[in-house]
Amino acid sequence: MSLTLRYFCYGCLLSSVTWSSSCCSTSTWAPPTAAPLSNQPHRGPERGGGRRAAAAPANQDAELSPEMVFQRDFVCSQDIFNEQDQQAADSGIPQTRLLTCSFQSFSPSLPSASVIICFFNEALSALLRTVHSVLDRTPELLLHEIILVDDHSELDDLKGALEQFVSSELKVKLVRNDKREGLIRGRMIGAKHATGDVLVFLDSHCEVNVLWLQPLLSLVSQDRRTVVCPVIDIISADTLKYSASPIVRGGFNWGLHFRWDPVPPSELGPDSSKPIRSPTMAGGLFAMDRSYFNELGQYDPGMDIWGGENLELSFRIWMCGGQLLIAPCSRVGHIFRKRRPYGSPGGTDTMAHNSLRLAHVWMDEYKLRRKLQCRSFKWFLQNIYPEMSSTALNHKNPPGLMNRNVRRPTVLQRGRLRNLGSGRCLVAQGRPTQKGGAVVLRSCDPQDQEQEWALDEEGQLVLSGLLCLDVSEVRTSDPPRLMKCHGSGGSQQWNLSKSSRLYQVSVGQCLSMSEPMGPKGYVSMAICDQSEAQQWCLES
Ligand code: UD2
Ligand code: MN
């Protein structure tokens, strides 16, 4: 049986990749060739120096590191690793850029960057790893300064030890907030201290990859109203391992929660290094002309602590004459934590508060919008995020009604969904017809009809021909559940990759057996890795 991935293969020589999905045969991984990242802050080897790593020939699974294989799962077999990229090979960080990126050249007179990093109670090692990676992988001329904004942290080593480090680095400045401001006002405080041409915001637990800054600065310098995000690679919160992310773009759902969407074919050109227009940004990592940031009104200062500011700024950029792009050749790793290690001072739900402000300001007539002569939200939906308008249509017309008029998606594969880590199969915890029911791992039984899943061309995983495997886009750490199939992708769209991972497009995570596996056989969503706990075989 063969499976075609329509969304994650683009911009390269092929318009789609078709491969055999006999998943069980690909469960052994080639040993990693990239050096594992340590927990400790480090300086990478100097650019241009160091040992040249052996370049991996493309198209040979056996010689690709897991990171590369992972990337290829989502991108394209030809477009994987550039043998000529000496700097990349010497960097000690897995190379996640596409081959075409090395043909890019940049103007010798790019603007300078002020890198702003806000942190609250961040692990010193994670913060230093972020700062060192910027110092090591950014050309001297382009780095104007790094501004660290301490949002009134309580941890001891963020005091003396950090000050000692800052005093030894000329370009690093430290600003301390007198009280907890939250990341939104924190970033504005950082911006106020900045004097470089372009503001580049990073979270305090990142690692920038080689040549990360040039593609961002280059696009901003071509048009000061262009805001640019890198591709956010994944650093595992458990192992700190760095792996490539698929190229997806930002969207949102009607709960005003950010989500990752596949890049629509209309956005894909023949050149995979071309920037991609993105309706929204994830929030943490982006470059923006400093004067444009001020002109556009910075952030909404009424937003507290965390959440919602990313959509607010994205709407404002698009509706008020700017554009938001993702530069596929700029890669920055970010630790996606399972839980945020902090709350808000008053214990309130700042995300809900911020989202309400966002709705009031941008989804209705409002004076701020008139002052900036911005377009309407309707314009934004019609022109920048038409995919959302079609979801809105689905909401108005119950999916059941809609589905009666449309053809059912073709089933690509059927069978039991066996988890390689446990050897067990995914089944409904209760009745497979129960909406909202959980799924668990039980002994496989080829005779049992209730263990049969169908994977269709829309990426839906349908159990016993009835309900779809669905994740919550609001509480992304919740385990998946069985829901009525809605036919609009997102929370019900799964990709079974060649390496047997079940990648959930909307939350950007993989289906995993919960470890340690108790008698109940629970499963969960987790940051994708190469473990057997995340490998699944759809076997008939
Ligand atoms: C994502 C964004 C984050 C922000 C957030 C929504 C990425 C990779 N991350 O969540 O930047 O847009 O969505 O608001 O796109 N911090 C403070 N003070 C606080 C709370 C946080 O300084 O009161 C710092 C924190 O230490 C970190 C940054 O703000 O450096 C972002 O916080 P996060 O990493 O917890 O957010 P994240 O990645 O879950
Ligand atoms: Mn973060």
Automatic annotation (TrEMBL):
GO terms for cellular component: Golgi membrane. It is a single-pass type II membrane protein. It is found in: Golgi apparatus membrane. SUPFAM superfamilies: Nucleotide-diphospho-sugar transferases, Ricin B-like lectins. InterPro entries: GalNAc-T, Glyco_trans_2-like, Nucleotide-diphossugar_trans, Ricin_B-like_lectins, Ricin_B_lectin. Its EC number is 2.4.1.-. Keywords: Disulfide bond, Glycoprotein, Glycosyltransferase, Golgi apparatus, Lectin, Manganese, Membrane, Notch signaling pathway, Signal, Signal-anchor, Transferase, Transmembrane, Transmembrane helix. Residues 1-20 form the signal peptide. Its cofactor is Mn(2+). One of its GO terms (molecular function) is Notch binding. The keyword Disulfide bond applies. Pathway: Protein modification; protein glycosylation. Interacts with NOTCH1. PANTHER family: N-ACETYLGALACTOSAMINYLTRANSFERASE, POLYPEPTIDE N-ACETYLGALACTOSAMINYLTRANSFERASE. This is Polypeptide N-acetylgalactosaminyltransferase.
